[in-house]
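Section 5.1 Outputs to date
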Amino acid sequence: MKSFIKICGITNFEDAEIAVQYGVNAIGFNLFNKSKRLIPLDKIVNICNDLSGDIEVFLLFVNQEREFVADCLKKLPTAIPQFHGDETKEYCESFGRDYVKAIRVNKDTDLEKINHDYKSAKMLIFDSYDEVSYGGTGKSFDLSLLNGLIEIPFLVAGGIDETNFHNALLIKNCSGIDICSGVEDGPGIKNHLKVKNIVEKVRSFHV
């Protein structure tokens, strides 16, 4: 099965369009107001309306008010909410659509509880743990912590680039990768050659 590729932290039309042209499966827009890759909702709507092809759109939220999330999903009715904070299962399910739950992993993460709590998720995203930041740090984590224990389809994030993506794809039940800083020249500025290279390498990689 073809690996799922998501490029997160999109902040402009050119980077989104390149993702479409290179056959990326999904792009992510960050609506967390403390993110270095924050993008206004109206700009996201305009970008999505102008894209030349179909691509899944993920909207990243971190512990945000339910009313704000609902308003964003109303304006982008096909977008998938990605909850990257401490949101409960009940909160994630309350919007009545597919959702993605991101988990910051360290040695104390209870993966069995994750399997139970978020079994309704479309997929999970496992990212490196950071005391301050919620993703996009460029830091990797010990992939052996996942240890084949995850029953829900998932993506691996956290410092993924063209040199190490294969380590993620070899994990049992891993559906693909979520890339942010690994294809950037700076926060929110994607390097189109790096995007092209990693897509080609992932597509030619066979587990």
